[in-house]
Records
---
Amino acid sequence: MPNLKAQYFNLKNLAAVFALLLFFGCASIQTPQGGPKDNKPPKVVSMIPKNQTRNFNAKKILIQFDEFFKIQNETKEFSISPELEKAPILKIKKKILEITMPDTLEKNTTYTLNFGKAIADINEANVIKNLSYVFSTGNEIDSLSLSGKVTNSLTGDFEKEATVFILPVERDSLFGKRRPSIYTLTDSAGNYKLNNLRKGTYKVYALKESTGGGDKIYQQSSDEVGYLKEPLVIDKNIDNINLQVFKETAPDFRVLDKKINTDGSISFSFTQQLKQPQLTVTEPAALDVSKKVLFNKTNDTAKVWLNDLSFDSVKVAIQDQGKLLQTVNLTRGKKDTYTRDLTPADNAASGKLNPFQTFTLTFTLPVNSADASKITLLEDSVKRTNFELVKDSINFLQYHIKYPWKIKKSYDIKFNAGTFTGIFNSKNKDFTKKFILDPKENYATLGLNIEVPDTTKNYIVEFINEKKAPIKSFLINKKTTITFANYPAGKYFIRVIYDDNKNGIWDTGNVKSGTQPEKIWYSPEEKSLKPNWERIDNLTIPPKP
């Protein structure tokens, strides 16, 4: 007789094994991972009526895309040229954009619907740039074009997504008041092209809006602008109309921003760079004597520290070259409290001190006194006492530590609590600075024998880094030799500003007065400095372009 019990257990074991295999097999199945991020904008599948339709009389335009989409910033991005009293109505119907046209179209007229960056896909908001639809209510379509490049007047870099637009000369008074209807955006190489233009005379502009802009209306306080001084007659296709954008200097002085900071200091920013600025506390007048003021290098921002913050309000007069520009009032909340941190920054970048510099501490608050006895300087963990703590003679935010630093040594400088006493008896907490001395062999010197094209003119010769930030500059007007001494090895460049008004700074343009920025020339030769090099190059400045 068969052993039924054994068979039962065998079947049970087989079922258990099968269940385990099924479990582990299922466990190995992973959730599908997402593919590459979608970075492609929607594509146009069809347009009804077709783009470039003549004798247009349709009530609606249907534009079908290959995916679902959305309309963003319609009031800023969408326009029709010529403008209409009643704007077209845009509606989304699945993957189709339905545009209802008004009944007020002019006869024998070419219209351009410009979508700017209004059309984007649903998921990633990838934008179709410079999408347009053109039609004519007559037999002909305007077919003239204008193209060129947009660059930055200071850096020479191509401007991506700058808005280039034209205004008929009779409508130029609308500049800065209303957005243009004929515009396009530059590509990544700064190129632009305006198509389907009507024969006429136009003013040409480029606009680089600040972050948060996008309305295509020039705001002098925040945007950069470029323009052609003279009106342009467009009666044929025109290429190579290049524009340079610049940040326009404000025509009038005013205080852009004023505030009492969380540490009790007072900050100001101005619309203009001042030449000989001065701030005076007029009320309460007693606070003016002990105040401390620090302007930035360009004299368009300032910070003020007062020894007494018990006031309800304070008045500050802003002057330049002895002339009163503006008086501002700041109010302090009665319950306002302030937090002060006396932990400084230092000039040992990446833990390395430039061997041609003194170790410098820079505080965010004025320091009234310091106690060197609370400082411990360790050289390779060995305590050293032959250092000096010196207050900067000009900048009241800085202290220097002088010591015969040595290469191949590591330094730890420990500052105990209360080493520094700042304004309002604020004191530092414990902090430590660590660094090594960078070898002199890592630095180099460049000399330039310079020839100028015209000794009656001024030139500003600037030594700049890869990011085109100026490091050092010289004002010259004759054949001379200049030296850029003891700079870290790396890539550097030379640019020259043609200082037409001989004021020693680069002046931007002004749209209202019709002035352009002072010209800048970049030397095409890279000035690479190799470790422990000292060399002299020749530089011939060309005539102003």
---
Amino acid sequence: MTAHTPDAFDSSAPTVQFPVVRAERQSTAESTPGGGQPGDRGEPGAPAAASGGDAPRRGRRALIASAVAAAAVVAAGGVAGYAYAGDVPRGTTVLGVELGGATRAEATAALRAELARRADRLAAPVPVTVAGKTARITPASVGLAVDVEATVAAATGKKSDRLTRLFGGHEVQPVVTVDAARLDAELRRAAGTFGEQMTMPAVVFEGITPKPVYPRPGKGLDAERSAQAVREGWLGGQAVAIPLVELHPASDAAEVDRLVAELAGPAVAAPVTVTTDRGELTIPPAATAKSLRLTADKNGKINPRIDQKALRAAIAGQLAKIEVKPKDATVSISGGKPRVSPSAPGQQVDLSALAGELLAVLPKPDGRHVTAALKPLQPGTTTEEIVKLGIKERVSTFTTHFDGGLSDPRSHNIVTAAKKVDGALVKPGKVFSLNGYTGPRGYAEGYKDAPVILDGKLVPGVGGGISQFTTTLFNATYYAGLEDVQHTPHSYWFSRYPSVIESTIFYPTLDFKFRNDTPYGVVIDTSFTSSSITVSIWSTKVYDSVTTEWSPRRDITTPETVYLEPGPTCIATDGINGFTQDAWRIFRKGGKEVEREKFTWRYLPEPRYRCAEKPA
């Protein structure tokens, strides 16, 4: 008996044919009652002789078994070839895309193509609900995406998984990635306040008495749980429900009580003596209470620490007797030349190291003595830095005049501001702010009441007259060729100022700023007489000259007459015409114009204010 297979292997329907076996089965059905077969030579119904009956039958059975085994091997080979074709099991799909029988590379390309087809939908904001609030999360903002390589790896499975290989794959869910931290931040931003906030544990001080704040759990977001919900629900087409979980602070009530008993209470029971190379200082209990922090982090864990800024403020008077302030190098103008005053380093108690020493000694009832090191404190500007700035000549100067002498409140304010700004150093690339440099200009800073423009009319106001100093400074920097950052001309034009290129100021809303856009340092030098204020800029010249050209005045308007209630706050004026005008700042270098900058301003007509009742 021989087995025959088809000439070509059909992987979709492997077959094995056994024609001889089917013939034998037919003959057996026609056998005699004695079990003999046609052609047997034994007596009817009698057992066949061992030598002539069982041996052929056993031979035939062996032959059939061999044929079946051979067929099984052939069939197994065909099925194995079918099952292991490609890297992905037959019948495997991802996002509805058939990947069965594909290689990794083919499956990756097919999945990428499908994602590209769905790009608009995958980039669309994802609706999420948090505690009944609905928000939308943009996938790109939280790193939400399908990991193609990981998805293909999941679809491929293991080569040893024979059942899957043999009987086919299944729908494989895409592997979705998301940045849990970014998602958590975005959910909190988009959904706003939700859940129940935890009561964080703490120990606070009322004076020098420690008071416990016991923790309570709350409900809120858990970054990993939120990420898991978004990973699982993103592609489902429905709003993703973000779960709220119960949150417990890391430090419990027992920990709070322990900190009160073992640290907070002993900490303020007695002072701590600190020894340095320049003498001793004492940290009293009140200073300890102001600087010892026993508050929790975002996880509710109390990590004791010393607030160095608070400690420095609490013992500032004692530190002043020990520490040495550094001295910045400065530039002053003397005898028509810039002169450098050298810098000097200072010394400061190393509070960073001291904080650790304090935390170690505060729980102790005695032996409350620590040593603190003094660390060098470098000046903000060294002598070497000043020299490298190349400040060697006066680049520009500008003068304006005032009446009334130095005893006049307005003149006093101008001179006070000038003294404050004198010697100011502006390094390359830095912006100078007049408001920022002088700070508030009130009575406490030595300024007096003088006329200011408020709501379109002159009224008494502290610091009146500073606009004249501002205009003088603006023009000095203007003609030095420095970059104008912010300036605002007056509402009305005053003849003591050049039109258009002038500036008012009002703390803190109106400021004057310029940028040192040169590679050299800039020093502001101020001087005054009983009737004038002068500002000079010292640096190194970048331009041969900076000049101004004005257009004719246009759109001229005349003032109206306004009657005001007589009294100490009423200031009469003669009125000023309004007009519009342009001014061009012209830069020349190497004998030719290299830049032209245009300024334009519209002045309102200042009314003729009369401190009297309006005539009938």
---
Amino acid sequence: MQTCTNLELNNVKITSEFWNRYRELIVKEVLPYQWSVMNDEANIHIADDPQKNGTTKNSHAIANLKIVASKIKGHHSGFPFQDTDVYKWLEAVAYSLRYHPNDDLKQIADKLIDLIAEAQEYDGYLSTYFQIEAPERKFKRLKQSHELYTMGHYIEAAVAYYQVTGNEKALNIARKMADCIDNNFGLEKGKIPGYDGHPEIELALSRLYELTHEKKYLNLAYYFLKQRGQDPKFFDHQIEQDGFDHDLIEGMRNFPLSYYQAAEPIVDQETAEGHAVRVVYLCTGIAYVARLTGDQDLLTVCKRFWNNIVKKRMYVTGNIGSTTTGESFTYDYDLPNDTMYGETCASVGMTFFAKQMLQIEPEGEYGDILEKELFNGSLSGISLDGKHFFYVNPLEADPTASKGNPGKSHILTRRADWFGCACCPSNVARLIASVDQYIYTVHGSTILSHQFISNEANFDNNISIIQSNNFPWDGNISYKIKNPGENKFKFGIRIPSWSQCNYKLQVNKKDVNLPVKSGFVYIFVESSQMQIDLSLDMCIQFIRANNRVKNDLGKVAVQRGPIVYCAEEMDNSAPLWLYRIKEQAQARYHYNDHLLNGIGTIKVDAEVLNEDSKDDLLYTTVSNKPYDWHESKLSLIPYYAWGNRDDGQMSVWLNKEY
């Protein structure tokens, strides 16, 4: 018998009915649909984008690459970062081929890589906007250009595609890109002493280093992190030289440096400021490099940003970004529900950040937030048919308000076909396709099970773990561990924060009482077989916000297990704000096989007011017309499933009688 010192996870096969439906949806509907959109073959309505980011009904993302590769003639269409729609799609394809081999899809992806190779310049540069429209401006307006962001997304896709298919051409393109960036950026004479306005390249280079073990890529990622904010005038100097009125993206010039996380060095930044997606991509890169280098200053930054976001700036669904202005964070406890942003990409980015933090240290809170994002914040971004998407994820929505109030026009109450700025559809696709990578984390001789997604996993030394459950609808989790070599290792199971007061654990059918350490219970495995059964508390919980959050005072959110619920007009007569949950309300759970592809529903005791007449006075005394509450019920569905039926109001936070 030996103690395992450096276990590795080799393979995970998802068996979860809940997640396999989504993963098959990715293969059968999402990827073909997105491919047709990017090839301008789908009948979509980009012009419906409330942000007015699109002016035509087409994506042109593939056409841009073909123009650069001299296959067709034309001008660049879309944003400077339009290429990233293609690259994130390719990454999602890579993950899907691992669990659902598809020769036709692989041929499409291989030909796409051939096209990308033809579009890449000899020195490794590839960003179609600049190659077509402004070759003289390469790397000269980094505040807006997204060049490194764009190439970073390709590098991520290439790493994934090579790992699944072994395609050397895909990886060589990524190497050439990274080498091009390395040749152009740094503090050496003749190089650019700057960084991209949109963090992403840092995490991409870290992934490339993990695959290739070429230290220069990690060093380059480290440079970008350390250099950010060192020279607050860097962007201004570039703009002055490039031409003040020569913007690449209208309106971006006037955002403060904090929007780009560049107002000061990252080690000095105390709070999460600016564009939410930029923040969490940056945090993921910081966590990556901190883990790979052991830099304690960077780790301190990670924890500081994590605590600020999770404890003061995150919605109950895991969404982040409080304002449509800059898609940004605002200030602590400012969490409006009907004007918020909560971009899908930001929730996807939080899963990346949480995963990296779990790889640094076994803290259950990281797993809690990862779970919250997977089942709520991120999943809300895609419809049940896989062909409609939310860019913005509000916690309160009203079609009348979205149409009538310009300050709420960004709040869609039906998912859109596509967006002019289409970062979210392919981002949520690559997350769902790779969800098998978010279940376990290995620390030396310890295997952590932090997500309850049914699977069959294989580790080194012929160790295998079968996790069985009907999560998120049922809290009974079963593990069967096979350890034929009778190796010694620890198995840690996350006890979710929503169940830590009440759970039951059995090992080989015997009750055990183990201490919870930082959110995990640990079981020592040394026999050839072991069965572990965990029963989590799936009672319905009424959640209140910290009373510093003025928007939620006197309200509650309803949660069962990891799922946050909401009320929709389809199940409750509008307006929803006339309801309140009773003081001693009873809540009843029911699983409905036939509703929204199968969901758990909740009915809760409530009271409702009759809506005042349009002829009534706008204001009157309470004594003249007191509120007259009537017995009622509120029907609730999971937040991720809202907006899949008829148009109507929705609310997560509900009035509560106290």
